Amino acid sequence: MRLCIPSSGQEGLEAAVGQHFGKVPYFTIVNSETGEVEIVPNTSEHMGGVGVPPEQLSKQGVDIMLCGGLGRKAIQLFESYGIEVYAGATGSVADTVNAWKDGKLEKASMNNACQGHDHN
């Protein structure tokens, strides 16, 4: 599985999880089977590029996105690209991957979507 964690830096597993996934400068992609780490710049329209983050991450072959939280529209977009989303991520990328492996992150849904920060 290819996991994507929105990150504030390029430090790989040590990078901090960005709390606004669409506006982070980087996406850290971790292969859960091999442990391989890849840093991908956010080139979505939020960063002056084209497309939306779910589209960009779909092109990167991401299966699952792990983030702090996100709005309903974003959840629907990720679902439309076949990417599962888990919320509640904090700390570093490594902390987040371990939390996901331990079943400590909640699958994002319309019931736990963010209500603020222009996500609606």
Characterization of this structure:
The chain is an alpha/beta fold. It is 21% helix and 22% strand. The chain is built from three helices and six strands. It is globular. The termini are far apart. The mean pLDDT is 90.
Specify the helix fraction band.
Answer: 10-25%
Biggest β-sheet description: 6 strands, mixed
Strand order, largest beta sheet: 3-2-1-4-5-6
H/E topology pattern:
EEEHEHEHE
Tally the helices: what do you get? Answer: 3
Strand content: 15-25%
Average pLDDT score: 90
What spatial form do the alpha-carbon principal axes imply?
A: globular
End-to-end Cα distance: 29 Å
Q: SS-based structural class?
A: alpha/beta
Radius of gyration: 13 Å
**Which runs of at least 5 residues are low in confidence (pLDDT < 50)?**
none
Question: In total, how many beta strands?
Answer: 6
SSE blueprint:
Blueprint: E1 2-7, E2 26-31, E3 37-41, H1 53-59, E4 64-67, H2 72-80, E5 84-87, H3 93-101, E6 106-107
Parallel strand pairs: 1-4, 4-5
Antiparallel strand pairs: 1-2, 2-3, 5-6
Provide a concise account of the structure shown.
This protein is of the alpha/beta class and 120 residues long. Helix content is 21%, strand content 22%.
Please tag this protein with its features.
120 residues, 6-stranded mixed sheet, 3 helices, globular
